[in-house]
Amino acid sequence: MNADIFGGVTSFVRAAEAHSFTRAARFLGLTPSAVSKSDSRLERELGVRLFNRSPREVSLTSEGEDFFARCQDLVHG
Questions:
Q1: Three-state SS annotation for the chain
Q2: How far is CA 10 from the centre of its chain?
């Protein structure tokens, strides 16, 4: 597992909470593209799709909801 996965977890949690890569990016001081790419890398690392993506918002898949429940405390801890 790549060491960058921990940054990906933070990006994932913020995007899940915001329901938006753009709002998560604003919060993290990144570009929306960087957040989207980070979340895509995390999905590849885990071998599972975490988000349902639409032009206006993102929502969690059932696997994403499970992963979010486990990661939320790590980010906010």
A1: CCCCHHHHHHHHHHHHHHCCHHHHHHHHCCCHHHHHHHHHHHHHHHCCCCEEECCCCEEECHHHHHHHHHHHHHHHC
A2: 7
Give the three-class secondary structure for 48. coil
Q: Which of 9, 43, 45 is nearest to 28 (CA)?
A: 9
User: What's the distance, CA 4 to chain centroid?
Assistant: 13
Q: Which residues, listed in sequence order, are joined to residue 40 by a DSSP beta bridge?
A: none
Q: What is the pLDDT of residue 2?
A: 47
pLDDT digits (tens, 9 = 90+) for 3-62: 465 678 999 999 999 999 999 999 999 999 999 999 999 999 999 999 999 888 899 999
